[in-house]
Amino acid sequence: MNTYNVVIDASMIRNMLQTDMKESVDLLSLQQVLYFVFLGLLPAYIIYKLPLHIRSYRVECTAKLKQLLVLTLIMGLTLFGFFKHFSSFAREHKPLRYTANPTYWLYSVGKYVSNTLSSGKIVVSPTGMDAKVVKSKDEKPKLVIMVVGEATRADHLKFNGYSKNTTPQLEKEEIVNLENVFSCGTSTAVSVPCMFSYYPKSDYSYKKGIRKENVLDVLNHTKNISILWRDNNSDSKGVALRVPYENYKNNKRNTVCIEGECRDEGMLVGLESYIEKQKNKDVLIVLHQMGNHGPAYYKRYTQAFETFTPVCKTNQLEACTKEEINNAYDNALRYTDDFLVKTIGLLKQYNQTHQTAMLYMSDHGESLGENGIYLHGMPYFMAPDAQVHIATLLWENDAMKTSFDFSKIPTSTTYTQDYLFHSLLGLFKVKTKVYDETLDLFKLSK
Fold it and tell me: pTM for the whole thing?
């Protein structure tokens, strides 16, 4: 909280419990260890060693009650004397209650338990069991790669007018950039399951999400679409529980682990073999990136992509200048730029046999020190634009244009991640009662 200005709410508790050791280590620093030792362990040890005079239970309770009454009286008189100032201040600065320690994080733990635990076994409600693919017999099979980005804010893309060229290779491709897309949450644990969920953000909750099948399940019900999820992040957050899932966070499967980091491009290795096995079937491949996961942005790219300097090469972002933080973050974006172009290159191999497309959507954005706020995970209602305004890019080959022309989609219109569920159904021409064409981006491209 002191270093990154994060808020420990129920969503942050979920992030903590769903992360892995490698992500956690990125947050550790010598400063944090010293902070913990000298302001935590040492005072606790001193208090532990103090001799205590134990009185009877009744005497102790009476003494504590007197002390409590005196302190309550003092606080009451103080509030009464400055009530006009306190009341207006409290009304104007309601988010202050989210930083009250230890009350708010204790409340958040209780809220997380209430939102997560259930009285019985979780039963997943089937969704879209009537789903079927409706297309002409002479239509080429579809091959779609959906890239789920990590912490990519829209305003750091060259496409959106950013001063630095963070997407030099994508600029050479026929990319459709959606300028105003907003996330469902401010963290991976919320946004990823929400963006694939049937429920819109206004109606989504963790409990409801885990009890209803998502869009991957609906596509799977058609029996005509092969689905594969490859993950180089923490995991799918429950989205890929019922479809084939492969973990690329370690070198047992990921063959591109450089400088101690398993790279996103490793998820592309061997996809040709998988695609060849899906004879005459539509294919959806989801690649969940490590992307721009902070605070150690400098670890998210190899030396070849260190274009912008000087760079913040520590996880103690407050020790770096704004320029150094931005440079490290932007260099990681250039690596994502390279990864996406390689993904497009793989898809181009199937120009003659498939209708192909790449969809890129970040899970959430990222704060880079604006107003002293770093990383992400702020409560949505008070989150800065940088944490919710996300990068979203589309690409298709000529064969796909016979069904959908992405360039016809209004690029400056405001969209949300609510569109993803119905857009994937529309892209694969799936007919089902749960499909809503008003939330289908590709309906606009016909």
Answer: 0.84
> What is d(CA 346, CA 121) in angstroms, rounded to the nearest whole number?
42
pLDDT at 8 over 90: no
- Whether residue 127 contacts residue 421, with contact meaning beta carbons closer than 8 Å, is answered with no
How many domains is the chain built from? 2
305 vs 383: CA distance, rounded Å: 30
Asked whether the bond before 295 is cis by omega within 30 degrees of 0, the reply is yes
- Tell whether 300 and 363 lie within a shared domain: yes
The predicted pLDDT at position 92 comes to 62
185 alpha-carbon distance from chain centroid? 7
Distances (CA, A) of 197 to 191, 205, 206: 10, 10, 10
C-alpha–C-alpha distance, residues 162 and 193, integer Å? 29
Which H, E and C letters describe 144-176, residue by residue?
EEEEEECCCEHHHCHHHCCCCCCCCCHHHCCCE
Output phi, psi for 133, to 5 deg: -85, 130
Residue finishing a domain among 72, 88, 116: 116
Q: Is the omega angle on the peptide bond into residue 168 within 30 degrees of 0, that is, cis?
A: no
| pLDDT for position 87 | 62
Q: Are residues 80 and 151 in the same domain?
A: no
Are 148 and 109 members of one domain? Answer: no
pLDDT band at 307 (very low <50, low <70, confident <90, very high): very high
Residue range 239-265, pLDDT digits in tens: 999 999 999 999 999 999 988 899 999
Cα distances (angstroms) measured from residue 361 to each of 251, 268, 288, 365? 26, 17, 10, 11
pLDDT tens-place string over residues 270-287: 999 999 999 889 999 999
